[in-house]
Amino acid sequence: MVFTQAELDYLAGQRIGRLATVSPAGQVENNPVGFFVDATAGTVTIGGHALGASKKFRNVQRGSTVSLVVDDLASIEPWVARGLEIRGTAAALTDHEPPLPYFSHEIITITPTKLVSWGLDGPRSSRRV
Length: 129
Description:
Elements: H1 5-12, E1 16-22, E2 28-38, E3 43-47, H2 55-61, E4 66-76, E5 79-93, E6 107-118, E7 125-128
Antiparallel strand pairs: 1-2, 1-4, 2-3, 3-6, 4-5, 5-6, 6-7
C-alpha cells in the first residue's frame, strides 16, 4: 500500500489541495484543486471544471512533475498543523469519466514517488514510494 492508514483517513476528510506544476519555461504554477484518492491503485486523481483548458493540465501534458499539498490546522490553541505532500509523476488524460458529474472529461492522475506527512500520527515522516 502506498499510503498509510493515517494518511488515507486524513485525505478522506479533506476536499481541496494545492497542485504545483512547472511550465516548460520553468515557471511554477500552484493552484487549488479537488482530488480523489484511489487507495487500491495508490494514485490520486485531480478533476475540475474545464480542467483541459488550464495551465496545470498543459504543464502535465508537457511532462511536468507535480506536488500536491493537502493541509489544515487541527487546532490553533495549541497550534497543531497537519498535512501531506504528495510528490510524483502525473498524466493528463482526456475523454475520461469525470470523478463528479459536473467536472470536465479531462483528469490528471498522480502516481506518488515521495510522501511527506506531518501531524497525522506521530512525528514528521518522509518516504519514497
